[in-house]
Amino acid sequence: MDRLEEAMTGSEQAPWWPGLWRSLDSLQQPDWTGPELSRIVRLLAALPPLVAPADVSTLRHQLREVQAGRAFVLQGGDCAEHLGRRAVLDAQAKYRLLGRMAATISERTGLPVVTIGRLAGQFAKPRSRPVEEVGGRLLPAFQGLLVNGPEATDAARAPRPGRLVEAYATARDVLELLARLAGPGSTRASAVPVNNWLGARGWSADPVPLSAEGAAYGRTSRVRDQWIHRGLWASHEALILDYEEPLARRDPETGEWYLSSAHLPWVGYRSNHPNGGHVRFLAELSNPVAVKVGPDTDPADLIQLCHRLDPKRTPGRLTLVSRQGAALLRSRLPRLVAAVRDAGHPVIWMCDPMHGNTVRTASGLKTRHYDDIAAELSGFFEVLTGMGQLPGGVHLELAADDVTECVGGGGPQLADLPTAYRTLCDPRLNDVQAVALTELTADLLRTPGAGRMPVLTAAAR
Questions:
Q1: Using CA atoms, how far apart are residues 256 and 55, in angstroms rounded to an integer?
Q2: Euclidean distance between CA atoms 398 and 64, whole angstroms
Q3: Residue 154, number of CB atoms within 10 A of its CB
Q4: DSSP category for residue 121
Q5: Which residue in 36, 108, 215, 319 is deepest, having the highest Cβ count within 10 Å?
Q6: Would you tell me the crossing angle of helices 85-109 and 431-446 to the nearest 10 degrees?
Q7: Cβ atoms 294, 152 nearer than 8 A
Q8: Cβ atoms within 10 A of the Cβ of 18, count?
Q9: In angstroms, rounded to a whole number, what is the distance separating the alpha carbons of residues 355 and 148?
Q10: Architecture of domain 3-460
């Protein structure tokens, strides 16, 4: 029996609890120093949940529709969020851009679009190396504002546990904004000061479900002859487990564990080992979850991931986000799709055409070429439809701002990059590039073989 056949047979898992990850190999965790961390974790565990279990359930239902070919996912936002008021202003711009993009796809295809933001928690970033050279000095790598600061000093780069509480407060403020933007009926419990010594605030009660007024929250819906976008789900990479563990809560109605820091958490490409702490932490949570898979992902490991995260083969539970790179996609993705298909896991396949196409300029700036992004997205549709599978969504890093970070697609050229290069980490699409990619996505969904149009056009109407 080879590794793939062995993986497809499944395996027994040890009993689960939120702190199980601490006994496992958990990559990309900060080297916190001092006694403050345990106090911060206790505080987070005492604060109200950030998202309501009813909303998690609503998103699960919407993703079942995606897996069945009756909807499509648009997921996008920052590579790494700011903390504080800046994050709230950024989220407002992203809400509007993602809504415009989703409505465009729906208008052109007849597909309901489930909209998910990379926000209200996307504060940490995995790094390929623990240190980086800045001005001839070796410093700890910047891991996102959840962990340390981007300034090139020893003090800024030291991990500071108090940032976990700042992240919680920022996520709460962003989620409150999203509720207001969604309109009447999407309300949250009011905020009151708690633990002033840390400057943190929490809700006076558990959050009121955003989806209480119906299942249309977080997706486009047809109102008379117009597609309307209302609501945005929150997602982020569940990377720093000292932040995530205390926000794992029990649903008081069902008794199930769920992650209250996000509606849709995901495991990144650098931490997706089937037996690693990140995968095991998410394994028993009731949220829908996603995993990034790349050109070096082994099919046997991928099947083990599916067994770990979706042992009951529940439609909509597991999303696999492909980030191969335009040059490798056609040679690497088919073997992964075939392995999952043959194992019978009802996953959603999404395309992240950003992360596999990052390059550095001669001056050292990271950038991405629009043509490479578009080529990976087109290749993804070609591979999935050619294998009889449904392309389920697209996962983008976008700024909702007139930045100059990615090249082409009606945006800047290489010489223009320094003009408005504002990202905290990776290059993002500006509005012109994001809209162009939206139009390409709509065209690809209308292409024969995409597998949706005959069903969805009728169902949507």
A1: 14
A2: 26
A3: 10
A4: S
A5: 319
A6: 30
A7: no
A8: 20
A9: 22
A10: Alpha-Beta Barrel (3.20)
pLDDT digits (tens, 9 = 90+) for 366-419: 999 999 999 999 999 999 999 999 999 999 999 999 999 999 999 999 999 999
Query: Contact 182/210 with Cβ under 8 angstroms?
Result: yes
Tell me what percent of the chain is helix, strand and coil, each rounded to the nearest 5.
Answer: 40, 20, 40
Taking the domains of the chain in order of start, what are their residue ranges?
3-460
Coil, helix or strand for 140? strand
- The Cβ of residue 193 has, within 10 Å, a number of other Cβ atoms equal to 10
Give the per-residue SS3 of 232-301.
CEEEEECCCHHHHHHHEEECCCCCCEEECCCCEEEECHHHCCCCCHHHHHHHCCCCCEEEEECCCCCHHH
Between CA 280 and CA 269 the distance in angstroms is 15
Question: In degrees rounded to 5, what are phi and psi of residue 47?
Answer: -80, 155
DSSP string, 19-41: GGGGGS--TT-----SSHHHHHH
Cα–Cα distance measured from residue 287 to residue 257, given in angstroms and rounded to the nearest whole number: 9
Structure pTM?
A: 0.92
Nearest residue to 292 (alpha-carbon basis) of 281, 302, 282: 302
Can you read off the two tokens belonging to residue 433?
């590039």
The tokens for 56 are: 């998690």
Are 122 and 80 in contact by the 8 Å Cβ rule? The answer is yes
Among 90-99, 207-216, 424-433, name the one with the lowest average pLDDT.
207-216
Give the tokens for residue 35. Answer: 């006694």
Task: Note whether 55 and 232 are within 8 A (CB).
Answer: no
Main-chain dihedrals φ then ψ at residue 132, nearest 5 degrees: -145, 155
Q: Is 115:220 a contact under the CB 8 Å cutoff?
A: yes
Tell me the C-alpha to C-alpha distance, in Å, between residue 2 and each of 5, 7, 189, 298, 303.
5, 9, 53, 13, 13
**Locus of tokens 């500006």:** 430
CA 292 – CA 359 distance, rounded (Å):
19
